[in-house]
Amino acid sequence: MPPQPVPASESSGTDPAKRVLPPNPRAAAIVALAFTALLYLVELVDVVLPADLDQSGGIVAREVSDLDGVLWAPLLHAGWGHLFSNTVPVLVFAFLAMSAGIGRWVLVTAIIWVLSGLGVWLIAPGGTVTVGASGVAFGWLAFLLVRGIFNRAVGQILVAVVLLGIWSGMLWGLLPGDTGISWQGHLFGALSGVFAAWLMARADRSRARKATGPGSLAG
């Protein structure tokens, strides 16, 4: 049986799971900017109408009728100041989290989005309304901090060290503090990011084992 062609990523020794930067930086930047622009558009609509979206679309703890807030809350913010504080982390973390491709980023983001929202819905104080993209941002940060450990990727670990050095102050947001800040969203966002990194690493290892199995050998 003639030798089979080797994929470019394998022949060059590059493992997509261990990339530090997105394979298509321009496309990743456009996606990150588009997502951030959507946040600003939603806030603008809320201010101009005014539509009171914060109250109607946020997560209200343990209210079954408001469970759909899990889907909408990350798109809403309690004013421009709240949105401004989330902008840079959202842009940077979203871009770097696309290192395995935009499709993988969508899956990771969906895991963080839903699980962090459900965590808030379960344990936030009754009667409170939670909005903001900070839970998702914490999820992306946690994903970036631990993926290198799961992937055994030195480059990703170095990036994690840099991110930790710049945004270490964010970690205080995981603890109860200011009553106006949802530490529940931050905590469950971070836990969801770790879970997403573990799932992705596990899937990559499973795929690698299948690719190097007996059936993949040329003969």
UniProtKB/TrEMBL annotation:
Residues 71-202 form the Peptidase S54 rhomboid domain. It comes from the Bacteria. Coiled coil: none annotated. Keywords: Hydrolase, Membrane, Protease, Transmembrane, Transmembrane helix. One of its GO terms (biological process) is proteolysis. It comes from Amycolatopsis keratiniphila. Its main location: membrane. This is Peptidase S54 rhomboid domain-containing protein. The chain crosses the membrane at residues 27-51, 71-98, 105-124, 130-150, 157-175, 181-201. It is a multi-pass membrane protein. GO terms for cellular component: membrane.
